Amino acid sequence: MTATQKLHNLGQSLWLDNITRDLLNSGALKRYIAELSVTGLTSNPTIFDHAIKSSSYDVDIREGLEKGKSGESLFFDLALDDLTRAADLFRSVYDRTNGVDGWVSLEVSPLLAHDTTSTIVAAKKLSARAGRPNLFIKIPGTKEGLPAIEEAIFAGVPVNVTLLFSPEQYVAAAEAYLRGIERRIAAGLNAQVGSVASMFISRWDVAVASKVPKTLDNRLGIAIAGRIYQAYLNLISNPRSKRAYNAGARPQRLLWASTGTKDPKASDLLYIKALASPFTVNTMPEATLKALADHGEIGPAMVANNGDCENVLAEFAKAGINADSLAAELQGEGAKSFVKSWNELLAVIASKSAALKQSA
Fold first, then answer.
1. pLDDT (tens digit, 9 = 90+) per residue, 45-98?
2. Which pairs count as long-range contacts for 230-235, CB under 8 Å and 24+ apart, including other chains?
3. What burial letters (b/e) apply to 190-199, b meaning 16+ CB within 10 Å?
């Protein structure tokens, strides 16, 4: 039995943090589903930026240009084509698990991260265009994103809340989800609308690298995850959540994101082993997925507070790291990073469009 199957059997969903036309056309994604227990997929602007640089998209870009498409409009055509194909591959998983698993994710424009109204409009539009029940719309858990999350859930749009770093940010996003569900219940609507809350882990360790003693290297993200996991377990078992479940709602699952190891001196499965936890999702880069299947071993399941996470966080505090302020900084930087990737993605599309026009 592969380590990926063992992790799946432990109760954690393995999702691939990647999407390319080649993954679909070559049958690789289909093999990952069949052989490596992959039950979902996430995407982001950086992933599409890298993907669209290949020639696999040239025919579709040319066809889009002939229809007068460009920029964001052309990108979403390309992205929806890939993600609806992926969603169809995962549809049997979605049906078999009654909508718990088998999801793919598409992000609204990162330019809207601080624009509540436009995010709501974009989320509803993209979900309708996709026409797939197992496609999440990714909305950032920024201050402006929280009311958009609530409104999207109330409208029946499945949401992957992204750019979350701290327990406080997680709880705020989870409560926005619950408010949307409670409004549906009050309105007599079906209370089952899918959602996950994506916690970014490795960026914590990148942020403090060289700023703390070597004994603390690559320990902050996992310690923060321990706190988040405790907050998750508390929230999904509290009376408010149980009332929503009694009306037909499902828990918003916790998703571990940014789980590829950034430090070349550390294990390539550092975060995978540490975050093995039932009723959660781990979305991992393709290289990490292959490493897990090739030489991974799964240890015991993660425990609430990750054992000694409070002691570890106290050591970081002594080293001058303020976790609260760093969480806000990471979320702000993450939003800016996605905007940068988005602009680079649109530049790639513009450049390729110009080249294809010249060669026509």
1. 888 888 888 788 999 999 999 899 989 999 999 999 999 999 999 999 999 999
2. 230/167, 230/304, 230/305, 231/167, 231/170, 231/171, 232/170, 232/174, 232/197, 232/280, 233/304, 235/171, 235/174
3. ebebbbbbbb
Res 360: pLDDT: 63
- What pLDDT shows up at residue 252? 98
The single-letter DSSP state of residue 1 is -
In the structure encoding, which two tokens stand for residue 128, read together? 């309708």
Q: Are the beta carbons of 226 and 241 closer than 8 angstroms?
A: no
- Residue 64's alpha-carbon distances to 68, 277, 345, in angstroms, are 6, 43, 16
Q: Please give the backbone phi and psi of residue 164, each rounded to the nearest 5 degrees, phi first.
A: -105, 140
Active site residue 125: no
Q: Which residue has the tokens 């001058």?
A: 320
pLDDT number for residue 51: 87
Are 271 and 202 spatial neighbours (Cβ–Cβ below 8 Å)?
yes
Catalytic site residue from 138, 336, 340, 357:
138
- Percentage of residues in the chain with pLDDT exceeding 70? 99
Name residues whose C-beta falls within 8 Å of residue 59's C-beta, 6 or more positions apart in sequence. Answer: none
Q: Which among 257, 226, 239 is positioned nearest to 164, based on CA atoms?
A: 257
Residue 267 dihedral angles phi and psi, to the nearest 5°: -60, 140
Return the ∠ at Cα 274 (arms to 282 and 268), rounded to 5°. 80
What predicted TM-score, i.e. pTM, was given to this entire model?
Answer: 0.95
**Tokens 């929230």 label which residue?**
235
Contacts of 270 (CB under 8 A, 6+ apart): 218, 222, 261, 263
pLDDT at 305: 61
Stretches in the chain below the pLDDT threshold 50: none
Instruction: Please report where in the chains the tokens 């624009």 appear, as a residue.
Output: 115
Looking at residue 194, what is its pLDDT? 98
Q: Residue 46's pLDDT is what?
A: 86
